[in-house]
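Postdoc handover notes: sequence design on the structure in folder B. Input tokens:
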């Protein structure tokens, strides 16, 4: 499965993710925070908000997609040595130069299976008392898309990891986190109909499904999914987590 994204298009269409990301950035407690890991920085729109809100922090911007990192480098160039870029896969162990004081992550963990293992890896790069502040797809996220895919034959059933708050609260406690909070936030999101909606589906939601198909079949597939949805609306449900490494 390709780890690559159409990063320039993502950067252009990911306004819902940037808007949700602003809330996540605001939840980060700036006290005693010098180094923040942005786990799944994408094209850097949320990373940029973090750098603006906390002008004294340095950020390690991690992503598994080389194209996303390229886009993030462009967007964040003006922050100079305040940002370091790391091409790494959150599904595998990775190392930082030193422990982070906080980890921020937006719209990423639902792409990573096995959250108990993911949270153990994150605890391993976070200092004792350091914060994890994250938001990603939770139970019920884009259920209408899953139903539409099931109707036309989903080549990647169960591809996304959409846990309940209880699932990930337990996984975080097991991984050595304390003060754990986890809650769902429904975010039904309307996209401009027609081409903008189809581009959003193809670039973000159906990225991996589309990548499996020959180029010529992609638009038809995306249209078949869109036609089964109740309008250009995505029934997003975000899972927020907040925790400190014990
Ligand atoms: C929807 S984008 C979110 C980007 C950014 N945080 C935002 O909110 O706009 C998801 C990002 O997670 C990254 N990602 C997904 N799975 C990953 C993995 N296993 N390791 C590292 N990055 C991953 C993707 O490459 C992509 O850049």
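Designed sequence:
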């Amino acid at each position: 499965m390709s780890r690559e994204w159409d990063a320039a298009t993502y950067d252009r269409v990911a306004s819902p993710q940037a808007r949700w990301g602003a809330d996540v950035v605001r939840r980060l407690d700036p006290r005693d925070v010098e180094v923040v890991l942005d786990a799944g920085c994408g094209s850097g729109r949320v990373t940029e908000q973090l750098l603006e809100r906390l002008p004294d922090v340095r950020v390690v911007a991690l992503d598994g997609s080389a194209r996303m990192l390229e886009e993030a480098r462009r967007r964040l160039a003006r922050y100079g040595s305040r940002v370091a870029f790391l091409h790494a896969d959150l599904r595998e162990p990775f190392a930082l130069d030193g422990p982070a004081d906080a980890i921020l992550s937006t719209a990423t963990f639902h792409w990573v299976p096995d959250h108990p293992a993911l949270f153990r890896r994150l605890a391993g790069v976070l200092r004792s008392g350091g914060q994890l502040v994250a938001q990603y797809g939770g139970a019920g996220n884009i259920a209408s898309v899953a139903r539409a895919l099931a109707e036309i034959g989903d080549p990647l059933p169960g591809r996304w990891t959409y846990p309940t708050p209880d699932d990930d609260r337990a996984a975080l406690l097991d991984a050595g986190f304390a003060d754990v909070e986890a809650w769902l936030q429904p975010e039904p999101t309307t996209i401009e109909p027609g081409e903008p909606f189809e581009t959003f589906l193809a670039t973000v939601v159906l990225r991996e499904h589309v990548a499996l198909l020959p180029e010529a079949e992609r638009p038809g597939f995306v249209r078949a999914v869109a036609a089964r949805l109740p309008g250009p609306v995505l029934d997003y449900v975000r899972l927020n987590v907040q925790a400190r490494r014990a």
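Context for whoever picks this up: Residues 77 and 197 are 30 Å apart (CA to CA). Don't rerun without checking with the PI first.
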